[in-house]
Amino acid sequence: MTKTLTMNDCPYCEGHGYVQLLLGGSETCYSCQGTGSDHEEDDDH
Ligand SMILES: [Zn+2]
């Protein structure tokens, strides 16, 4: 684990918005809906 992710980066796609498929190609990240951000705490204060 040498990469340092920011708190807002999606842990699945590492902020790219898509994930690499084992069979080849890429797919829109299902976790962040392609935004690349972790929207777990996305409410305004
Ligand atoms: Zn993602």
| Sequence of secondary-structure elements | EE
Bound molecules: zinc ion
The major sheet is characterized as: 2 strands, antiparallel
**Class computed from helices, strands and strand pairing:** mainly beta
- Low-confidence parts lasting 5 or more residues at pLDDT below 50? none
- How are the strands of the largest sheet arranged? 1-2
**CA-CA gap between termini:** 33 Å
Number of helices: 0
General form: flat
Write down the Rg: 12 Å
Percent range for helical residues?
A: under 10%
Mean pLDDT: 83
Strand content: 5-15%
Instruction: Work out the number of β strands.
Output: 2
Protein name: YuiA family protein
Pfam family, one: DUF5351
Organism: Geobacillus thermopakistaniensis (strain MAS1)
Q: What's this, in brief?
A:
The protein is mostly beta strands. It has strands spanning 18-20, 26-28.
Question: Helix and strand layout, with pairings?
Answer:
Blueprint: E1 18-20, E2 26-28
Antiparallel strand pairs: 1-2
The structure holds zinc ion.
Zinc ion is lined by residues 10, 12-13, 29, 31-32, 36.
Structure description:
- It comes from Geobacillus thermopakistaniensis (strain MAS1).
- InterPro entries: DUF5351 (IPR035272), HSP_DnaJ_Cys-rich_dom_sf (IPR036410).
- Pfam families: DUF5351.
- The chain is mainly β.
- The protein has a domain at 8-35.
- Helix content is 0%, strand content 13%.
- It contains no helices and 2 strands.
- The chain has strands at residues 18-20, 26-28.
- It has a two-stranded antiparallel ribbon.
- The radius of gyration is 12 Å and the shape is flat.
- The model has no long low-confidence stretch (mean pLDDT 83).
- Zinc ion (ZN) binds at residues 10, 12-13, 29, 31-32, 36.
- Zinc ion (ZN) is lined by residues 10, 12-13, 29, 31-32, 36.
